[in-house]
Design brief:
It is built from 7 helices and no strands. It is mostly helical and 142 residues long.
Length: 142
Amino acid sequence: MKEENRAIYILVYFFEFISGIIGYFFAGENERLRFHSKQAMILGVISFIISFIPIVSVLTVFIWLYGLYLGIKAYKGKDVGLPIITSKIEEEAVESEHTSRKKVTHSKVAESTGEHIKALKLRYAKGEITKKEYNKIKKDLE
């Protein structure tokens, strides 16, 4: 995503569910925006459910603020995930990538390898994989 468009990450979390849906459908090939849009939608659903419980409905404000925090971190280039829920989103993304990878023709493999290396670097930076795993997967991709 271009440098001047980073504010979209804050906007995606601003109205949670609604802006998450809009962000998801306008993300196109931008997996990072899709990731944050999914998280915003999840926060929106959680807020909606909690709002019906009188004693804890005040938590919706804190959930909204946490969403803005996630948007600001994404704006600064750091992807912070929702505890527990993020791992489920990433598993879905890996399955989706695996399925779409089967469809990639040999002529497109060279083009897509650069994107896979970027995704691999992001996973390593987040601490999701060890250096040993990073080097092995990178070697397999190249």
